[in-house]
Structure formats: structure tokens, C-alpha cells
Specification:
Elements (H helix, E strand, L loop, with lengths): L5 H4 L9 E5 L6 H8 L4 E6 L1 H17 L3 E6 L5 H10 L5 E6 L1 H14 L3 E5 L11 E6 L2 E6 L5 E5 H4 L4 H12 L1 H15 L5 H17 L7 H22 L8 H12 L7 H16 L3 H10 L6 H4 L3 H10 L18 H10 L4
Parallel strand pairs: 1-8, 2-3, 2-4, 4-5, 5-8
Antiparallel strand pairs: 6-7
Helix pairs in contact: 4-5, 7-10, 7-12, 8-9, 8-12, 9-10, 11-12, 11-15, 12-13, 15-16
Length: 356
């Protein structure tokens, strides 16, 4: 397992983040990090109002003290309107900084891409693998679609702040990393049955990250701060895996198709992305014929959902989702769901796994 990206940077030092900091009080070092990265002056900080109260005000003072001119734009969602409005506010900026969770960082990378300027990722919760990637998920009405941008020039993860986030976000991040197990298995299936291009290095980076998080399920309570650092490294490794292949293939397979179908079929559900893909991973690991019980036990340890009651999705919806998930991105993604699953079989599978 590679816990540093130094070896990855050797492949293409212009394609990956130039600086990755994962440590206590890392936000205090933001000005020094920026000075080493370029000659920046006007910074647009993309943030949510709650995150602004927790950490945004402090970052503003830290930046202003060193002569930077930070402006803040508050976002509630990563949708086309929000990105357009943020882009207008960033026209005079020479750097974008995404501070917070998934939607804030996704908006930041999308705006930076539109304006053709660099951006910095400052995650405050460990719930997703997009903190170091070049991809945003943008909403348009009830649909979502991916947008390709640029990776951040730096990732600054302050574990002092991240450790204070609700446990649910830590668990969701673990779920998102664990999902790489079935994503890589689906990729191997596509290689073997369809001749799809496959990258061993990227696949191993993603898969071994998942294995680390599964193994740590028994130990994370003993040293939670160290577990946060482990999770952040694994999330960043997954982002790097996508950068290596210029594709989400190492990190997104049938379990993500399951998640996206839930989003489409039952949009009122409030489960986090990592929670939905975790449940999808449990189901898809069974279909792949691998150690699904071990995966289930890891999910239980992290307090992630393993059944319809816990994820708050009706059984009939989950049956529908499993029997139709193969239609999502079927033209782009060959997975274990390649032939679809009959609704009756889907119900029997979910019952056997005690999902319903």
C-alpha cells in the first residue's frame, strides 16, 4: 500500500497536487503553502455558511494577516446556477479555494476550471474521495452529471478540524473508500470480458486503500486521530488513482450505479453518498462472489447501513434499484450488473443478504 503520493508524482508531476498536507492545525500554514505554490493575491473561497462559522472566519484572518485578499461565496449545492454565480464573483480572483465538504469542493473545482485558474482543496470533513480529484458532480434539476476539471494544486487537510466533524462523515468516507473493492473488480471484469484498458497501478492504489479501511474497522476506536489520517490518505490515494487513469474507473463501478439509481428513484432519501455506495458494495461483493460477510462486518463496525431500515429506503425501492441499476451509464461502464437482474431475483438476493 502506498500512503504517500510521492511515487505517483514521478509519473507526471504537472498532473497531480504539488502539495499535500495532512496534519494538526494545517490551516495555520495556508499562507506559507500558497507562497511556495505561486504569486497569488485575490482568493475566492467557496464555502458553506456553517463551515464559515466553524473555520472560514479563522482562515480569512490567517490570509488577510499575510496580505492576501480573500473573498467568500456561500454555496448550498453544487448545481449549474451556483457554479455560474460563483464564477461571476471569481472573475478577478487568481486562485480558488474550496473549503468544507463535497459540494463546496466540487463547486470550487468547477469554477476554477471555467476560469482557468488553479484551486486549493481544504476539506473539513472526510466523507468523500473528491478532495484530490479532477471531477465534480453537478446537479441539473433532478439529474446529476460529472464535470471534468483540474486537480487541486494543493490539499490542506487540518485533522484538528476534521476530528471535530460528526462521526457520520468519517463513516461515510470509510464507505466511499471500501466501495473501491467492487469498483476494481468491475474494472477487471470489463478488462477480461470486453478488453477494456486497465491500469494495474491505479487499480492497486484504489483496492489496497479499501483493504486498509476494512482492516482498520476493528481498530479505529483505539486511536481515532490516527484513523482520520489513515482515511484522509486513502481518500487522496483514490483521487490520485482517478488522475492516473484520467477516469473514475478505479473508484466507481456497480456500487456507484446502485447509488446513482437510488438518487434517481428515491431522491428524497437523505443518506450520504458514502452510505449509499457502502450498501451497494455489500450487495455487489456478493454478486462478485467475494468476502461479502467481511465487508458487511466492516460496515457494521463503522455504523454504516446494511439494510433498508438503516438507510431508510423502502424494500420495494431497493428491489427496483437493484433490477434497474445496470441501465445507469450502461454505455460507458461494464460491470457485474452487465446483463441486469430480474426483479424476482433481485428480491431474493436482497432477502438472502438481509438487506430487506
Amino acid at each position: 500500500m502506498i500512503n504517500t503520493v510521492k511515487e505517483v508524482w514521478k509519473l507526471n508531476p504537472t498532473k497531480f497536487p504539488k502539495k499535500i498536507i495532512i496534519e494538526e492545525n494545517a490551516t495555520q500554514k495556508i499562507p506559507d503553502i500558497l507562497k511556495n505554490l505561486g504569486d497569488f493575491h485575490s482568493i475566492l473561497c467557496v464555502i458553506g455558511k456553517k463551515t464559515h462559522e466553524i473555520v472560514g472566519k479563522d482562515i480569512k484572518k490567517i490570509l488577510a494577516k499575510d496580505g492576501y485578499k480573500p473573498n467568500f461565496v456561500f454555496v448550498k449545492a453544487c448545481d449549474e446556477r451556483t457554479i455560474f454565480d460563483a464564477q461571476k464573483k471569481g472573475l478577478k480572483a487568481d486562485l480558488i479555494m474550496g473549503i468544507g465538504g463535497g459540494k463546496n469542493i466540487d463547486v470550487a473545482k468547477a469554477v476554477a476550471s471555467h476560469l482557468k485558474i488553479p484551486w486549493v482543496s481544504v476539506p473539513t470533513i472526510p466523507s468523500h474521495d473528491g478532495i484530490a480529484s479532477d471531477r465534480s458532480v453537478v446537479s441539473k434539476g433532478k439529474t446529476k452529471y460529472p464535470v471534468l476539471g483540474n486537480p487541486p494544486i494543493a490539499v490542506i487537510a487540518d485533522t484538528t478540524i476534521i476530528a471535530k466533524a460528526p462521526f457520520r462523515y468519517f463513516a461515510a468516507g470509510c464507505g466511499d473508500v471500501i466501495s473501491k473493492i467492487t469498483a476494481v473488480l468491475d474494472w477487471q471484469l470489463a478488462r477480461n470480458e470486453k478488453g477494456e484498458s486497465y491500469d494495474d497501478y491505479a487499480a492497486n492504489l484504489a483496492y489496497s486503500s479499501a483493504e486498509i479501511i476494512i482492516k482498520n474497522a476493528k481498530n479505529y476506536r483505539k486511536d481515532f486521530e490516527s484513523s482520520i489520517k489513515i482515511l484522509m490518505k486513502c481518500l487522496i490515494n483514490c483521487g490520485i488513482a482517478m488522475l492516473i487513469t484520467n477516469s473514475s474507473r478505479p473508484c466507481s463501478g456497480s456500487e456507484h450505479m446502485f447509488c446513482h439509481t437510488v438518487d434517481k428513484s428515491f431522491p428524497e432519501n437523505k443518506a450520504l453518498h458514502g452510505e449509499k455506495v457502502a450498501l451497494g458494495t455489500y450487495i455487489m461483493s456478493y454478486l462478485h462472489g467475494i468476502y461479502h460477510e467481511e465487508i458487511k462486518n466492516a460496515l457494521i463496525s463503522y455504523k454504516l447501513p446494511t439494510n433498508s431500515k438503516q438507510i431508510k429506503i423502502p424494500s420495494r425501492i431497493l428491489v427496483e434499484v437493484l433490477s434497474t441499476a445496470h441501465k445507469i451509464r450502461s454505455d460507458m461502464r461494464y460491470t457485474i450488473l452487465r446483463n441486469g437482474i430480474d426483479k424476482k431475483d433481485a428480491r431474493n438476493i436482497l432477502k438472502k443478504l438481509k438487506v430487506i
